[in-house]
Design a protein that fits this description.
With 260 residues, this protein is an alpha/beta fold. 47% of the residues lie in helices and 17% in strands. The chain binds 4-(N,N-dimethylamino)cinnamoyl-COA.
Amino acid sequence: MQMNNVICEKDGKTAIVTINRPQALNALNRETLEEILSCFIALEQDTEVCAVIVTGAGEKAFIAGADIAYMQDFDVLSARKFGRLGHQVLQAIESFPCPVIAAVNGFALGGGCELALACDIRLASENAKFGQPEVNLGVIPGFGGTQRLPRLVGTGHANELLFTGDIIDADEACRIGLVNRVVALDQLLQESLKITAKIAAKGPLAVKLCKEAAQAGMEMDLARACQYEADLFGVCFASEDQKEGMKAFLEKRQAKFTGN
Ligand code: DAK
């Protein structure tokens, strides 16, 4: 597929998805959202991929939000359609079978912050900035920010960001648990790749089931979630990787996982 605003490439078993509209600080218009969605649909068919990194082109922005110029003349129906497309994209990222890491290399505002929230792990460069400034524009976050932000950082920190539209720096984002850690901008991709290399060395099915259990369990009460975990734990025993992983441990050697 010919893409104008997204670059999708591979580094070993890691796919790197780069939002590439630096002239608009990688803001999300309809075409960009559709391209991200196509990317994730295609990557899901690629059995070699063990993890995905999402980042922004250039040194200034991860994603500066939904494209304000594109949205300004929306009527009710086009706003709803755009909102639904955004949710579809973030859902595709959140439910992607393998871990997805946001390598936040600058502004992650509005829809950009929301896209990072849909990822499994967030690393930030020292110049990264986060916020949900929609209230400055007279709207509310439209891609799940009012829902995923409180779930991640707690209601107090989330409410402050949502109600004030304040923009916070990477250290503050790390302090409130919005990002896992902060690294130098020129190290961001390498640090993200170090994480994906660790993930790629593990049993692929086990990693996928961990993501599924952790994510689905968040929507259940603890007792049901633990039952669900037990079911998925059982599923592991249908795999060759479980046999190889445990055999390798007992033979004091490195496991050779095949993903089967
Ligand atoms: N949309 C479109 N263009 C943007 C943009 C954005 N979000 N952010 C930046 N740009 C463009 C600027 O217009 C400028 O374009 P030119 O003038 O050069 O043509 C270029 O990128 C460079 O930006 P600046 O010149 O402004 O750069 P500065 O360093 O001075 O400032 C900034 C950087 C990030 C602080 C500033 O650009 C800024 O405040 N940008 C807007 C940030 C923002 O408010 N983001 C949230 C957007 S609202 C919904 C679905 C979703 C949403 C809402 C509803 N529905 C359910 C339908 C989501 C909403 C949002 O994400």
